[in-house]
Amino acid sequence: MSGPPGQKPDNAASPGAAPAVIPGLVWAFRIHPDGTADELDVAHSLDEQHDGWLWLHFNLADTRSRIWLAEAPGLPDQARAALLGSDRHQQLHTTDRCIYGVIADMVRDLSQITDQVGYLRFAMTERRMITARSEALHATDNARKKLRQGHRLRNVAALFEVVIDQVADAIDLATDAIGTELDEIEDRIVSGRKFEDRNRLGKLRRNAVRLHRQLLGLRSLFHRLERDGANAMSEDMDWHVPRLVQRLDWLDHEVVATRDRARLLQDEVVAKVAEESNRLLKTLTVIGTLLMPPTLITSFFGMNTKDMPFNDVENGTLWAAMLVVSGSLATYLWFRWLSKARD
């Protein structure tokens, strides 16, 4: 069977002498017709003559993997370009025999998911799924664990569904974590206790915005696939697009609600801080106003001129002090009268 221009059959050898061991391969699985998966030893050559299909996962940080992917058999040129590209926006393209693109996923360290976003590049045909990444990603690592635990796959598209489900699970977990922290902050605000770590709330809101942006791009891909591309794929490449779309839509609703909640709490904290600042400013203004008459009086008595009041009067200092106090008291009473007249 011949493919489109620029595409080689799945069983064709790559140009030149292909190496016995595929370089840059992180892991490989062979999935049999009954859906069971066997993990292969990447240190040995892979037998291309088999009754199932392969999942090959590459590390793009290894330059040798890029050389192999540039000549990967059975892929159109556009799919190879997507695997080796540097695009940082999510995309999904379909042809008669290949589906390829880029999706965003959470970067993981040795123990847990991080806040960083990485990009999984993929290309799949009826006989092969090729994925590639530069950092360790949550979705592919969990998909690998599911296959090791005996998860069965009906076809190549089912593997991609598993990967997308794991991406959604990571977003769901991150959203729950943000919601838990927002609960603690809200309890603190409602109970009247001070919340001074505004940077923490800002980080939570930023994470929620990032999750929404990531999920919005993923939803757009599958909505477009459901509308334009799903019917054009062969039965062996068929997947449950409506189920994925429904889950991503529901998850986006949760993320948007969390994002809006973080924004409202941030606005409330800012309002409380502004209210506290205004209260302090009002207090300082009142104190400054009450001190103005005494300052004027003491400045007047501090002039080195003749015929100063109370200069030759017995208890002149006491009279001057009473004048200072009377000035502040008169100012206070005047402000009280203005306040009542305004009310």
UniProtKB/TrEMBL annotation:
Q: Please, which domain of life does this record's source organism belong to?
A: Bacteria
Q: Does the keyword 4Fe-4S apply?
A: no
**Cross-referenced Pfam families:** CorA (PF01544)
The answer on whether this UniProt entry bears the keyword RNA-binding reads no
Name the UniProt key words of this record, in alphabetical order. Answer: Cell inner membrane, Cell membrane, Ion transport, Membrane, Transmembrane, Transmembrane helix, Transport, Zinc
GO CC, sorted alphabetically, is: plasma membrane
Where in the sequence is the signal peptide annotated?
A: none
Q: Where are the transmembrane segments?
A: 284-304, 316-335
Task: Family membership, please give it.
Answer: Belongs to the CorA metal ion transporter (MIT) (TC 1.A.35) family.
**Would you tell me the protein name for this molecule?**
Cobalt transporter
Q: What is the lineage of its organism?
A: Bacteria, Pseudomonadati, Pseudomonadota, Alphaproteobacteria, Hyphomicrobiales
